[in-house]
Amino acid sequence: MNGRIPTERRRISPIPPTSLGRARISPRVPTRRILSDGTSQSSSSSRSGNDGSQVDSNDGLTGLTRLRPALLPNVANFVSRMELTRPEVLRVARAYKAFSKCAEAFRPEVERQLHHNSRTSERIERFWSHSWHGGAMNKILTLLVLYNSQIAVCLGSAASLLMTFLFSMGFLPGLSRVTSVPEYQFSSWSLGSGFIVSMLSFVLWRPQQLVFFDRLCISESDPVLKTEAILSLAGMLKRSTEMLVLWDSTWSDRLWCLFELAAFLQCNNGARPGLMIRPTFLGPCSIAAFLTTCIAMIPVTTVPVPFGEGSNLLPVLAVSVSVANYLAVVTFRRYFESVEACSEKLRASSFETVRSACCEKNHSNSQGRDMICDREVVKECINIWWGSQEAFEDFLHSEVLEIVASDLQQGVFTSSFWRMATAPVFWTFLDMTATAANLGWWDLAAESCIVGLVLWLLGAPMWGEFNSLLTRTYCRRASSCFGDIRLNVKLVFATSLPVVLVAGCIFFLRLSLASPLLRAAMFVVLMMTCSVSYRLCKCPLGGGVPPRSPGHAAVDV
User: Fold this and answer.
1) Does residue 373 contact residue 363 with C-beta atoms inside 8 Å?
2) Structural domain that includes position 292
């Protein structure tokens, strides 16, 4: 993909200024929304106005029936020029406003007006594109992961380091894990505090980015403001630095979702800078990865250890990792399965098959009066931008689909993602460090800290990418429930094997070498060698397309 729009697309020609004046959208024209997708995109289908009456997002179009032949070209020309009806119509809100009061902005049953949470602006830092037909909880969790996960892990790590210092200095009580020597106190503070602080930060942190979210930035009680906002939607996208697509199985079905993507790409001449596409199942998948890592690490800081040896931790670690990893495998397979299903729908979508609420209602509102057709307006814009409907569909099925595949394959489960998801591994080794330091074994404390840091920075990303490669390759469901469980078990054994081997390597070095610092140095050399070797063979193993059976039509992402 060259990141450019095909050469057959026409540049936008100047439109005479007589296209759409202020009189077209003044209060004398009783329109609330000329460009309406009804129940899906720029506002929810039915919410209450300030007077307590139900607001139908398609009311107000009935008075335009007799003006329809003359109005449609003017509306399409105005929208295609990507202008604002007036500067005040461009509004933004702080990202945390969408999460306030249990994310009420995402819940259609909440009838309270939320327009006051936004303010006017000259630019939009990030435009949120989503479908109101998709699951609200998945969207909320995905946005929390995108905005709060990094700061949550940083604050959790800071709390873990603080607990390590306090326990090392003897300010905190410990856990007796050696029955024969009860005075040996072990720390479990670092893992526990890291988990609690990170989860609280994940939920309570207030991201300050200025975003456009339709529920907050488009008035639902003022028909004129709503109409102006919809008419200015393309102009808002032109003034957006980034666009975040919250992609689910319903997104590519909606007319106005595809319009938003087309308009943003048109603003960038078909290139993709600033475009971020994330499936809404990313949120549950990321949280599952973090929680299963915590579950796997709990036995390391709590299981009783016979004096003088720790070999009994190997089978306990193997069991805990296998149980936790089974949950992770199931979740990641569902993620990649949902990605394939969405990609299939995007590949098969066309301008004629995408859904628009006005067409679903047969262009008649709740009072039985005619409504303007969104599809006709968007079609005119598409013809102006791309030259023809067929050119747009070719662009959608080729370059847009490639953008989606590239984003979901390379931009989601990165090394940074796996370091955040596996932060509990480092917190667990900080507990070991605090325990050794509290007993005065400073060389063992240094070894535990070095080993934990290397595992977190080098080992976790390799394991995570290997895990995602296997689950992506075998994401399709088996023909029977028993067959699917058997496949999950096989994947669990395959993905747990590297963890068991690393644990075995650590215990082998402890039995073979007496010097803790020498053991740590040897482990660093081994992990760096594995990391370099993995990076060298990463392209032929995981950078390409996973093998598929003949005739498989899904997009490999």
Assistant:
1) yes
2) 22-543
